[in-house]
What we know:
Distance between the termini of chain B: 37 Å
Oligomer: heterodimer
Structural class of chain A: mainly beta
Order of helices and strands of chain B: EEEEEEEEEEE
Radius of gyration of chain B: 14 Å
Largest interface: A-B, 26 and 28 residues
Strand content of chain B: over 45%
Number of helices of chain B: 0
Number of strands of chain B: 11
Order of helices and strands of chain A: EEEEEEEEEEEE
Shape of chain A: globular
Amino acid sequence: xxxxxxxxxxxxxxxxxxxxxxxxxxxxxxxxxxxxxxxxxxxxxxxxxxxxxxxxxxxxxxxxxxxxxxxxxxxxxxxxxxxxxxxxxxxxxxxxxxxxxxxxxxxxxxxxxxxxxx
Amino acid sequence: xxxxxxxxxxxxxxxxxxxxxxxxxxxxxxxxxxxxxxxxxxxxxxxxxxxxxxxxxxxxxxxxxxxxxxxxxxxxxxxxxxxxxxxxxxxxxxxxxxxxxxxxxxxxxxxxxxxxx
Lengths: 118, 117
């Protein structure tokens, strides 16, 4: 089974509107971390936001917020007031075993290509 | 502060050759991870180094290897290149290996785009 699932290969949003990018995950760990990255065409992975499994509040970073529903194992990214510069590929990723200090690799979803329309 | 630097940015190699990619982490970061990104397989973990030791390895053949130097700079090597090795290779650096919140970790470089012909 896929550990990270992003079901939207492509999304379009009008400039200044909000958009939600979906992410569901699968893990048996109690302690894990969820990340969202933005990858523009230049290739660099830009960190956007982080949510720990034990964090009680949804994470927010400026225009980015994470709608974390632990029971449903979903961690959707909400971008408010979209800008043309937000057009990029967005990846959801998970790191398991956070508290044990074990393997630190990130498992990525397949990504969502977001296009912001003027 | 300077970010993660990967060199070269682009590389074209012939099948059967070998290649070495370099990654300089953020100053003070001691952990370096490598990822391969292809259209077909997406982003896949290659390996992670901390304090010059390989701590974790992904599911890649032995042709893929790496090392880390005392200044935390890392290199990855791919021998006997195959067409399927064409990919964007991304390096990420982080502050520590164990414990702590991950929010400060995993700063990625711009990648090296390798084309095998």
